[in-house]
Amino acid sequence: MELKDSRILVIGGAGFIGSYVAMELLKHPVKEVIIYDNFARGKMTNIEEPLKDPRCKLFPHGGDIREIDILNEAMNGMDYVVCLSAMWLLHCKDYPRTAFDVNVAGTFNVLEACVKNNIKKLVWSSSASVYGDAVELPMTENHPFNNKNFYGATKIAGEAMATAFNDRYNLPIIGLRYMNVYGPNQDQTAAYTGVIPIMLNKIDENVSPVINGDGSQAYDFIYVEDVVRCNVMSLTSDTTFGFYNVGTEIQTSIKTLCDTILRLKDSALKVQYKPYSADDARALVQNRIGSREKAEKELGFKYKYELEEGLQKLIDWRESQKNKN
Predict the structure, then answer these.
(1) According to the model, what pLDDT value does residue 177 have?
(2) Is 303 a catalytic site residue?
(3) N or C: which end of the chain has fewer CB within 10 A?
(4) What pTM, to 2 d.p., does this model score?
(5) Which of 151, 223, 244, 303 is catalytic?
(6) CA nearest 17: which of 191, 179, 189, 138?
(7) At what angle do helices 68-75 and 106-116 cross, to 10 degrees?
(8) What is the pLDDT of residues 123-141, one digit of tens each?
(9) Going from the N-terminus, what domains does the chain have, and what CATH number goes with each?
(10) Could you say which residues of the chain have pLDDT below 70?
């Protein structure tokens, strides 16, 4: 599909991944990129750069996917939609009812508005959380849904609704199952931040990073710029429906991750290990590494950044932010 002269709505466009998607889209000859965000997690600082481009605008009347009339107004006249809006994993754990309202009912609203406004294609953010703990590695897109948490449940529901909307209304939809995404603009200090910012914060405070368990639990870490390229490639691809892993297919243990960060930070701190709480142990995903075969074959997506390179880019960005303050 061609993006030339197209108008694209980026829902959640002021967030971590969404702000990068807006910037990436502006590298193409698009007519307009509209950022739609309620700023529950998004930040104006994330979109300072894309808003410098006259083709990029912030939707002025709010940006919540629970507000159906406002969502329809924003989508009116758009060609494509990229939806990255969601409550995050630990937030869903603490507020499951709101998680339903945002991630399930909100996703339905987006799908319904896409049909009403004749959107040519929707690229929607799912999550590797649908899989739960791996029963085989790497996990293909046919891996069973073993999820046990509220966040993963909302994404499974979203995928089921997307499938139904595609079947009933022939709405083109690409759903992306992100592995562990990291990089600049990720929230570095919030209560629901990810494992990499938490480790970096500890090291910057000259406090030993803490690993729950023995550190053998392993995941697939992918740099944000690779995830963003996959979003745009999904939009331009001739593929009209499917769900795809977005990862590297590289298994990295938490211990290896921490050791790499300590080395890149030139830190002599020693890792501290502590037992899992009963709550964490019950819900823990021990291994999650996604097969990249289907995304490579059908979307043409291949990751670019190795973990060490991506971590160094993140560390450099954090240093640049310190210098600004």
Answers:
(1) 98
(2) no
(3) C
(4) 0.95
(5) 151
(6) 179
(7) 40
(8) 999 999 999 988 999 999 9
(9) 7-179+223-247+290-304 (3.40.50.720)
(10) 190-192, 278-284, 325
